[in-house]
Prior knowledge:
heterodimer, A: alpha+beta, 6-stranded antiparallel β-sheet, globular, B: alpha/beta, 5 strands, 39% helix
Amino acid sequence: MSDENKIVRRLNDNTIEVSMPSKLGYERIAMESSASFAKIMGFMKDRIEDLKTAVSEACLNAMEHGNKGLDDARVVVTMSFENGILSVAVKDEGTGIGAFPEEPDIEKKVQNLEPTNGLGVYLIRKLVDQVEFNNVTSEGHVVTMQMKLSD
Amino acid sequence: MDQVNTTRVEKRGDVACIDIQGDLTASSEPFLNDAYAKACDCGTNRILFTFDPDAYINNGGIAILIQIIAEGKKRDQQIGITGISDHFKKIFALVGITKFATIYPTAQDGLNDLAGPD
């Protein structure tokens, strides 16, 4: 199989790349790859579960908002581990997040005063140690999440 | 990727039990709404959702559950949830679902509690 057809590639000893079509459902490949990668690096199960949800939500945002649902666009997830820190960068072909959703208020959602969706960014912020949005380059928009390996 | 949930609705005592197999995502909407409608037809205001412990749950699925909880609040229903993993118990608490629905360790615990006096 040629490199361009591979979804998961090992870039070096500490870096894995997942390049996937912008289709709902494929986020699970990135999610499971990040879980396997974190497990190899020594992360505990509960942190791996947090990472899986954060990666899934970042990929879904990339597909739905960054790539605007275009099937031929790609989402590229690069995960690396260095100095006890696992980093996951999720790149889409968009121009970044214009307006961040407000922190969700379940009371308002239940009263139909705010949409019931829009929880992704909130969950990412709650589940990883550090996150940076809106790193926009000529290649697209990148969200970078970091998680520290506990002693 | 199409997703199919398998749902079963049955009345156990005074509780309408909705068993949902499969992942909880935006694609679950018709399955959950259909099961919820059947539960509402059971003639009780006590509803227990049992999810698949291995289910993948994302923001889209949580949004559907919040819509149902909102509808349940309008109908003055008591809603319980069981079967979810510890991770998704944490997620449900983070987004506030636990303010409106009680999460039970087991289905039997849910049945016992929901079947109690109002």
